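ugh ok fine here u go
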Amino acid sequence: MLSSSTRLRISDILKRIENGQPVSISERIYLKKFADNDQSVASWVHKARVKQKRTKQVDGIEELLNGLSLGSPDPNTDFNSKEDDLADWFKGAPSWLSRS
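structure:
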């Protein structure tokens, strides 16, 4: 369980990531440490990266993937529905979502 001060610090870092503001390497390491050990923090990081990516207009498939928090969290990758395969974008889905 995260303390209030830890949660606030993580929240501050995530807000800066969402807004495309600078985040130091030590803050990224701090965030990764918690994301590796806590699925909730990992989800928050993924959502922050997706929100960062939303600054430009997206098509329907991209909007669906963003809403489901699926796809690549890398803001430099774009889904092109005319060239890309939708199945490839589901590779980033959590393990509980895969077929059994």
